[in-house]
Specification:
The chain has helices at about 55-60, 60-70, 75-90, 125-145, 165-180, 195-200, 220-225, 235-245, 265-275, 305-320, 335-340, 400, 410-415, 420, 425-430, 435-460; strands at about 1-5, 10-15, 25, 30-35, 35-40, 45-50, 70, 95-100, 105-110, 150-155, 185-190, 205-215, 225, 250-255, 285-290, 325, 370, 375, 390, 395. It is of the alpha/beta class and about 475 residues long. The chain folds into 2 domains: about 1-75 and about 405-460, no CATH class; about 95-400, Aldolase class I (TIM Barrel, Alpha-Beta Barrel), CATH 3.20.20.70. The radius of gyration is 23 Å and the shape is globular. The two termini are about 15 Å apart. The structure holds iron/sulfur cluster (SF4) (2 copies). One iron/sulfur cluster binds next to helix 13, helix 14 and helix 16. One iron/sulfur cluster binds next to helix 15.
Length: about 475
Amino acid sequence: MLKLMEDGAVQECRRPGPAQAGGGTAYPVYHRDLHGGMLAANSFMDEVWFVEGGELLAHGRDAILSRLAQGPAPEALIREAALRTQRLKEAAPYELAFCPTYSCNLRCAYCYQQFDPTLDKRVVSDENLSKFLAYAGGMIDKVRAARPERPVVLQFFGGEPFTRPAKPVIKKLFEFCRERKVHVAVTTNGVGVDDFFDILLPYHGYIAKVGVTLDGVGEFHDSRRKSRDGRDTFDGIVRNINVLLRAGIRVMTSLTLDKSNLGQAERFFAFAEAQGWSDNPLVELSVARVDDRKYETGYDAIMSEARLFKELLDLNSRKPFPANIRFAFLKTSLPLAARLRSAFNQNEAGRDKFRYCWSCSGLDSMVYVDSGLDVYRCTYTVGDKRFRIGTLAGGFSTEEWEKHWTWGRRECRECPIGGYCSGGCRLSAQKDFERNCREEKANFEYLIEHVVAPKLAGMLPAKAA
Ligand code: SF4
Ligand code: SF4
């Protein structure tokens, strides 16, 4: 018997197993000896197996691996993925993001935007705002003509949207949203939210979410997220979050971790509990990872996703996470994390199969439009003109981004983890494919050794483990 790993357990499965249904193509299979047997993953079929030592001896490793490698031709897998995308796309909201200014009231040590001297930090002009609203209005008409009930979300991004100089613009944007019955989502550092209560609170029913980044608790947060005028920010942000919650507005706190603030995770969850956030249905406690996708910061406290995953699982085993935690950093590791039932509500709603992230997927059409009406696809590139995908006036396309997928490179098509890694982050792959690939492979090995192997040991009957 082979064992299929899914749904937090290993389950007996008669040979040949699902991978052979409609087989015909042999995919590269990741495999590694573990617990007296072999762990094997067909990432293209998304199947993970444990083969006991006795099976290996009886049938031979190569014969078993060649059976597990089988699957339908790539065209069939791609067709199936496209059908899934189409289905999900029809149910998904239409989203568009706008950056009214690149100006920000904080100077966070690791910010990829604020230290760029070429960034135009003026608030959007009346003329450009009108052009953006004309574009947004046209898109809303189109979306609703096709499906009147489809929700529309306008996201505010920056810079920091909640700064006083941007208030008249934010007011106009909210008026537009109220007239067109559009939901609003905001990404903010939370510091200036109180200056906007008069706009936010009356609109509470239409606010999809306010996302607030926190780096830790109290002084620790203050030391990393420095206000431009040197003031502490943490207590004010917490007060603002609580006002939003009392008004019935959904809030997502985002704790962004690296080696230097990992110790804050436990403190933050205790703080969230004390604030009543852990069991508040309006709150999501998101956990993200500090990264360096363009390989340009040289910041050495970054953890790989598998390492952060392992550290958080250890923390969870000491003190279980609140139910409203939401991981936001699992990419290559996500399919295995889901099989281990350890993905902690990570929701990659916009990500297609064979894609590393939503930016490279066709499922979510969201783009970011800035105050100069330049258009960007990936969150991490907003404001960096090298990655602009066009302009509102001249047109734009996400086509190049969608070419980055498992099937776009020979190395990835022939890679045992190609169906999970899908070529990695497009920015990293563009900058240095070799490094990106090396780091993805090392990350996967770490995942197997430090996360999957210990979990698997707990799932296997005592003799196999
Ligand atoms: S980037 Fe490297 S590790 Fe990722 S799928 Fe391609 S070949 Fe495999
Ligand atoms: S390409 Fe994808 S993974 Fe890379 S920075 Fe952009 S959104 Fe993130």
